[in-house]
Amino acid sequence: MSQRLNLPVRLRRNRKNHAIRELVRETRLAPGDLIYPLFLHEKEVDEDIASMPGCKRWSVEGLLAEVGEAIKVGVSSFVLFPAIEEGLKTPGGEECHNPEGLVPRAIRAIKAAYPTSVVITDVALDPYNSDGHDGLVRKDERGEIHILNDETVEVLCRQALCHAAAGADIVAPSDMMDGRVAAIRDALDAEEFERVSILSYAAKYASAYYGPFRGALESAPKSGDKKSYQMDPANSREALREAELDIEEGADILMVKPAGPYQDVIRLLRDAVTLPIAAYQVSGEYLMIKAAAADGWVNEEAVMLESLLGIKRAGADMILTYFAKDAAKRLA
Ligand code: PBG
Question: For the chain, which terminus, N or C, has the lower number of CB atoms within 10 Å?
Answer without folding.
Answer: N
